[in-house]
Amino acid sequence: MRIGKKVRMARIFNRQTKRTVIVPMDHGVSIGPCEGLINTRETVDKVAEGHGDAVLLHKGLVEAGSREGGRDVGLIVHLSASTSLSPFPNSKTLVATVEDAIKLGADGVSVHINVGDTNESAMLADLGRTASTAEHWGMPLLAMIYGRGPMISNEYDGALVAHLARVGAELGADVVKVPYTGDIESFVKVVEGCCVPVVIAGGPKLNSTKDFLVVVHDAIKAGAAGLSVGRNVFQHPNVTQLVQTLRGLVHDDWSIEEALDFMKIK
């Protein structure tokens, strides 16, 4: 790994554990200014205070989310987008470049790909080109890859998710983000079949913090390199405490009992 990429990866991934807690906040483009993202800087502050490893933002929110003091937190700039108002919401398009991210001081970039969508070929081409550019500049690339399209009946199917993770690795991503399959045994196979670190997505907002923590705990046991979770974190009533708990699960190998005790959940 080139030194530039190695230095940037160390700002996103913990040097000792080789794992990460990432909180994406790119939802404003997809669904508008939702709960938890009205004041971006305030939410970034809460994540940083909880010792999260990185936040993920679109280029226009980097200044709004930059911290004026306190603990630093890694920055990933998201390069692709679509809105829920589109007749084709799963068709992502590039809206920023690796060079834009460099100018903004980013530690990494991310691209979203929906495999199975009718526009899959264009999104795969975007991923391939972005991976080449990111490699040229020594910029870590996170590929968010989901199975969404007319041929896909269950986006959490273990074989499908293993395929998604492998697509990201084979096309040049340094880190792959995929849905959790729902059980340790099937997710072990996802991790084993991918040549780069795998982090889990959060999916729809869960009603139970306990259920969310169990998912994270089990994913780590299955070999996940951490998580990249948005709404289940930034819409929580106590973002900082939750991020501290996630850090315990991801970096300190907490048991689920330790996590629930820290959150004061029975």
From TrEMBL:
Its EC number is 2.2.1.10. The active site is at Y146, K177. One of its GO terms (biological process) is amino acid biosynthetic process. It holds the Pfam family DeoC. One of its GO terms (molecular function) is hydro-lyase activity. Keywords: Amino-acid biosynthesis, Aromatic amino acid biosynthesis, Schiff base, Transferase. This is 2-amino-3,7-dideoxy-D-threo-hept-6-ulosonate synthase.
